[in-house]
Amino acid sequence: GLPARVRIHEVGARDGLQNEKATVPAEVKAEFIRRLAATGLTTIEATSFVHPKWVPQLADAEQLFPAVADLPVDLPVLVPNERGLDRALALGARRVAVFASATESFAKANLNRTVDEALAMFEPVVARAKDADGVHVRGYLSMCFGDPWEGAVPVEQVVKVCRALLDMGCDELSLGDTIGVATPGHVSALLAALAQAGVPVSALGVHFHDTYGQALSNTYAALRHGVTTVDASAGGLGGCPYAKSATGNLATEDLVWMLRGLGIDTGVDLGSLVATSVWMAAHLGRPSPSRTVRALAGS
Ligand code: HMG
Ligand code: MG
Questions:
Q1: For site-directed labelling of 117, which of 50, 71, 220, 239 has its Cα 20 to 30 A away?
Q2: For a pocket test of ligand 1, which of 51, 110, 141 has the largest count of ligand atoms closer than 8 A to its C-beta?
């Protein structure tokens, strides 16, 4: 069966804009997030409190977050370490996300740490978030399927890091196909292995990049396993500055189009979402890669 409702975790303002060559002004980002909130999206990842030299595109987090904090939506932010958590909590963030890797190569490239060192870095972040009046913590896990340096990633390796993130207190996990190489059979195999390991499917979200055009098929496979949280990026913006060959995320419009056809409720108005992505594309100076945006934008 399929779920009756799916919660979309919108990542365009973070995963999308972190990868833009040109820096988008904070006012434009804030307007983007306001427009996304007006479409009915309820979870809109706003930015990252990471080292500004590592991700200069999001160096304006202190300016951006207060500019959108009044919106009646959840605004999760990425925090790699206690320094990032301090910055986020100082601005009143109520949802944070740590981001682990299933592979050593990406842990090194993205966090300058081994997998275990990164987990050790997250432990006090999660503990302190819980102490801070129960701030919600998402644990991202990158390279769950394939890694540009290591190739195919064994399922057991992924299950192990998932367990570690849940055991340290993460409220939910997001399984990342950072470079977009997953296919539906692999998605099913990983979700079956996680269920076998006692990980409740209600704690799992999926995060697909669309490099090989498989993101929607992979999402469908995940829905069949009972997943109800799906990450997507308005207009298909995205990539990862520390993962060569990562292209855009699953486009939120493509996701909404499929879910609408399946009779699955998202609460999102597709027309205003398309209009938002067209507006953002004009700012970025190139058309959205989303097929659904292209199909609907002219109509
Ligand atoms: P490091 O160089 O090892 O940092 O980087 P450090 O801990 O040695 O500290 C060095 C300096 O950085 C210190 O300053 C710290 O204070 C400062 P100094 O004493 O030299 O003046 N510093 C900070 N400043 C501001 N904010 C902070 C912070 N932390 C340290 N939070 C670090 C380690 C984790 C900081 C760095 O590697 C980093 O910022 N990485 C972030 C990379 C990133 O954001 N990647 C993209 C997001 S992940 C993704 O896109 C995948 C995802 O979408 C899922 C998927 O698709 O798979 C989520
Ligand atoms: Mg990503």
A1: 239
A2: 51
Q: Are 101 and 143 in contact (CB under 8 A)?
A: yes
Q: Which helix (H) or strand (E) holds 124?
A: helix 115-131
- The protein residue with its alpha carbon nearest to ligand 1, atom 12, reads 51
- pLDDT tens track for 154-190: 999 999 999 999 999 999 999 999 999 999 999 999 9
CA of 59 to the centre of ligand 1 (A): 11
CA distance 166 to 181: 25
The reply to whether ligand 1 has any atom less than 6 angstroms from the CB of 112 is yes
Per this entry, what is the length of the chain?
299
- Ligand 1 nearest-atom number relative to CA 177: 57
- Please name the residues in contact with 232: beta carbons below 8 A apart, sequence gap of 6 or more: 8, 9, 10, 11, 249, 250, 251, 252, 254, 255
Q: Which residues contact 149 (CB under 8 A, 6 or more apart)?
A: 103, 105, 106
ipTM: 0.98
Token output for 209: 């990049």
